[in-house]
Write a structure and sequence with these properties.
heterotetramer; A: four-stranded mixed beta sheet; globular; B: Glutaconate Coenzyme A-transferase; three-stranded antiparallel beta sheet
């Protein structure tokens, strides 16, 4: 948030979310740029181009620094070789398991289901693992990355009761377990659970004591009631719920002119 | 006189002879890139059954195609999708939902633990991530135990040893010195774990060219080399071509017809047209057409 | 305006400020090659004490020099010798025989197990080789246990986590993208295991040159870079110079005077002449002399 | 042993031992060329240049094939970068631990002490580990390599009672343990123990049942009594002890003209 701090007036919810993501990045970190999710990808690049010139970007199994690139060429997949033109070095995919911290200090996890303690599920929906109602894609690297990084974030592209559930049918990435500030310690795992859950309606965080999900801010035009109506568990609602802060004019310009050239976030 | 050093180059038929019913086969690449598709199509053409298929981490539609064709009994992978082409691989989804597929459920960290254990000739290797998740429950081969040094809870990920790895790379010399373009994803881990490895390559290059840049040699000695230009089609090949999105969508449409309407017609037509009718990789390429192939340049 | 990307280049004094009494320091290279000697000499010059020194696997006379100078409390290495220059490192031998050195006794396989465990944030990793040997007895930190999957006997090798790795490489850019010439021996394993890494390099090269060959980047991001031409002297530097055999023999002779006759005179003279009197790496190079240095070409 | 099979007449014991080593190599294998020991190094190269064109030679952390090299440039150390000029590919040193079989199918182990069951010691000599009479260099990678390879060999540069002992003070690489054909199985380790022990006086193997060391052949000019007198344990002596077969003329010529140019084996 250097330079112009005048807030922009006209932006999409996706641009707002990308801005929120960008503000989670700290300069000098290693940051994996998940390619499949446009919003977190744009948000990380926004941080890099506005505030964090020393971030080491992990892009499609290469490390790079893009501050001198006038415009981002599109890269949408984790297998696309074309971004390798920017590479300062390669990471062999199985190397990440030799030291997951090399890849990233932060991570974004999605889910078919996310529960009130931030546990998430990419395995499938149904009561019987052998006869699922809906089989998901699988955990990818989410549980290992989330375990090792300094902090991670939950992100869903739709805010509804099918996704935000009281209890996941299966847990592929553990959040705060069965809750409580020692919810992870009790399991014998490091304390770095999910920090925020980002949705198209709002930002949620976790109550410090119970680690139960709590409304943090609603996006412009969204009411608290709308969030409550679309959430499958009893969300903690604080007295004051601010509106999620949008991009500054500079951030929006950088986003549109250097990162999201094709306008994926404007659709 | 010392005999000449032996060439390890095989044609696709001779290489496919190495693959038999019931084997454990690792398949290299990553999602929509770098799969040894000439060999995968040979597996389908020959009607090989009951395979345990390992990876890639993350897997893709190459594995889904093998499931569609009825070759797979057991699957070891962390992700089965096609990114923006389809969120969950269609034949995988239905087979998994019906309990028809034996899945070794794991994430990428665990996946490489299992391959490393095999390479290191260890019965298992430890992993910490996964405690508190459903993995030890839905994959009973993963055992929780206490670390002998610290006493803290750990997961033992059992070794998974492929009989054979088939991987795709840009180049190899005739002696099995393989050079990927790009990182090679997790292909090294498969090569180390497997008893034998066949590399399917875009080009066989002279040994002298390998020696010019030994740092680029990603697999220092595989057991056989198969030359198949455009051999990762319809998937991408770093340095050569991008994926054929139109073809992938044709496959996904056939998958969705089955997954959503139970209609196997389109996939049967797909298999007939692209795999069963062409008997060789060259015939497959003719079916795709040179115009389409040369349009898939990298930039 | 976005600030410029920060240079990580430090001078040898600022880099040596990172090293403190009692730390665990990994030192890269291999036997008589590729040690960050400018930094090693700074450690001695500053009289840093009670270090736990990790490696290299296999170690060499760089570590012996630190022992000679009284900097080392604990040693993690698999081999302490100088190949044909001396079968066993002299100061190491005497200190070990007298029980003055705390040795984490291991072989190369176990050595990398310990570093990998640290990198993977695991308390230990398993190894099979070593069962039936004296290792679990002479290194009680290694625990025998039964594998949770197969039940067979295994050794748990505890994690060894360096606070700092100091490694030698040919090149780095100002942003810590390090490119070794040659394989880099086990330097990657140290870099992954350590909290921080300082790379001492022959040349700092432009970022543009790194980007020309990203495959050559062996350590994708260290924490500091120190430029020290001829900085591995008296040891070899792949692509730059071979070891200075005459100088190494001078050191070994000083070591033997002590080991065989208990005479510390020659080593004290060595330390005074080559390490304590020159205050900087440049002064060290002047002491050695440019004629000698330029004679150590690779071929 | 292709081509000329006429045995040479005039050769050194080191050349004889190199020939013996060469006959242990099988074509198509991976073979680590330990640089420090001249005799095994020369022996492996001899096999490669006379019988085994498809061996993958592991030379100073590179893999290569040298059949087209008219003469070997000297390489004596495991850190020398110069042999990299021949490389077809690199092995990062810690990679060997990812799959030790990648490096070699065979291995040669030396020792400060070797006992009657082929256990060996590179740690030190003395009763008390904390107060050794002589501290050795350490195990290097011997125990891991010997554990993983298909078969390994013991090699000592001097045949005397200090080295060939009844019982090692410490064991760095396990041979046949406490003896017996199940001596390794009882320990829970793979069955591939040491095959031969090579010395400047003789070749020894291991009795099939007891795995006790046994005289296999004496080198030309050496008597059985000489071997017995210089061995620190009761060696099994078969009724017939042949003389170790020397190099053929072709082998000796290859050794002298293409491998051992400096005559290290003739000293």
């Amino acid at each position: 948030m250097t330079g112009t701090t005048t807030l922009a007036k006209d932006f999409t919810i996706k641009e707002l979310l990308a801005t929120f993501v960008s503000r989670q990045v700290r300069d000098g970190e290693r940051v994996a740029v998940g390619a499949g999710l446009h919003v977190p990808r744009a948000g990380i690049l926004l941080a890099h181009l506005t505030r964090c010139p020393n971030v080491r970007l992990y892009v499609v199994m290469t490390f790079t620094n893009l501050t001198k690139e006038p415009r981002m060429e599109p890269f949408y997949t984790v297998y696309d070789y074309r971004p390798a033109k920017w590479a300062e070095g390669y990471i062999i995919h199985d190397d990440f398991q030799e030291d997951p911290r090399i890849v990233s200090d932060t991570f974004v996890v999605g889910g078919l289901q996310i529960d009130k303690f931030g546990n998430s599920n990419l395995i499938g929906v149904g009561k019987d693992y052998k006869h699922l109602d809906f089989r998901g894609p699988g955990a990818v690297g989410t549980l290992s990355m989330a375990h090792y990084v300094d902090r991670y974030y939950l992100f869903v592209q739709s805010h509804d009761k099918r996704i935000l559930v009281d209890k996941c049918d299966f847990i592929s990435t553990v959040g705060w377990g069965q809750g409580g500030s020692d919810g992870r310690k009790k399991l014998g795992i490091p304390g770095n659970g999910p920090v925020y859950c980002m949705t198209p309606l709002c930002i949620m965080d976790f109550d410090e004591t119970t680690k139960h999900m709590r409304l943090k801010s609603v996006h412009p035009g969204v009411t608290v009631q709308q969030v409550v109506d679309n959430t499958g568990f009893a969300l903690i609602i604080p007295k004051d719920v601010p509106v999620t802060e949008g991009p500054t004019e500079e951030e929006l310009r950088t986003l549109r002119e250097r990162i999201d050239i094709e306008g994926m976030l404007r659709k | 006189m010392l005999p000449e050093r032996k060439s390890l180059v095989l044609d696709e038929h001779a290489a496919a002879d190495w693959i038999r019913d019931g084997m454990t086969i690792a398949i290299g690449g990553f999602i929509n890139s770098s799969h040894p598709m000439a060999l995968v199509r040979q597996i389908i053409r020959r009607g090989i059954k009951n395979l345990t298929v390992v990876g890639a981490a993350s897997g893709g539609l190459d594995l889904d195609l093998l499931i569609a064709a009825g070759c797979v009994k057991r699957l070891v992978t962390t992700y089965m999708g096609g990114e923006h082409y389809c969120p969950v691989a269609p034949f995988f989804r239905i087979a998994a939902q019906r309990g028809e597929l034996d899945i070794f459920e794991c994430d990428e960290g665990m996946f490489y633990c299992a391959l490393r254990a095999a390479a290191q000739r260890l019965p298992s290797t430890p992993w910490k991530a996964g405690i508190g998740t459903s993995f030890p429950e839905i994959n009973p081969e993963i055992k929780q135990y206490n670390d002998p040094v610290s006493g803290e809870p750990m997961l033992a990920i059992p070794a998974i040893k492929p009989d054979l790895a088939i991987i795709y790379a840009a180049h190899s010399d005739a002696f099995g010195n393989v050079q990927h373009v790009g990182t090679g994803f997790g292909d090294r881990a498969m090569w180390r774990a497997a008893d034998k490895t066949i590399a399917q390559v875009e080009r066989v290059i002279p040994n002298e060219e390998v020696r010019k840049n030994p740092l680029a040699t990603s697999l220092v000695g595989v057991d056989a080399v198969v030359r198949a230009p455009y051999g990762s089609h319809p998937f991408a090949a770093p340095g050569y071509y991008i994926e054929d999105g139109e073809h992938i969508r044709e496959y996904v449409d056939a998958g969705n017809a089955y997954a959503k309407k139970g209609d196997r017609g389109p996939i049967e037509a797909y298999l007939e047209k692209y795999i069963l009718k062409p008997k060789t990789h060259e015939e497959y390429l003719e079916t795709i057409g040179i115009r389409r192939l040369v349009a898939l340049h990298e930039y």
